[in-house]
Amino acid sequence: DPSAAGELLARVPGGDGYLPRRLREGLDLVVRTGSADELENHLKYLADVDAARAANGYGLVRFIVWAIPIMGFLGTVIGITVAIASLSPTQLENISGVVAGLGTAFDTTATALALSMVLMFLQFVLDRYEQSLLAVVDEKAWSSLAGRFQ
Q1: How far apart are CA 32 and CA 22, in angstroms?
Q2: How confident is residue 118, by pLDDT bands cut at 50, 70 and 90?
């Protein structure tokens, strides 16, 4: 009976984890409304909220992964600018300084792109892991609450 939701709510452990919070919020809906008619829709809503919360939690990391290639290209532009600025008509026979500057410029781009690829892969792995964790939470919350009340 939905009137038993308050007793169940009192037994849900504390903590800010996905599953306890989802159980508390689902049971709180039943307690507040006195009915479990909207519980399944509310569980779907809570799943969407948790997915959005997880995606927003990595905003700074996503920004850094996005900015690393730009920093590499900026290093390339600066390196080329320094190499060209050090070029004078008297140095046309000896352009080793210019070539060294260009090497440094392109090394920054290569390093940034390689680092960006590694970080993007790690971000992908972490996103997949968190999605699988949320899928487990969805399944456990659904099996614990959906169809439990009359």
Answers
A1: 15
A2: very high
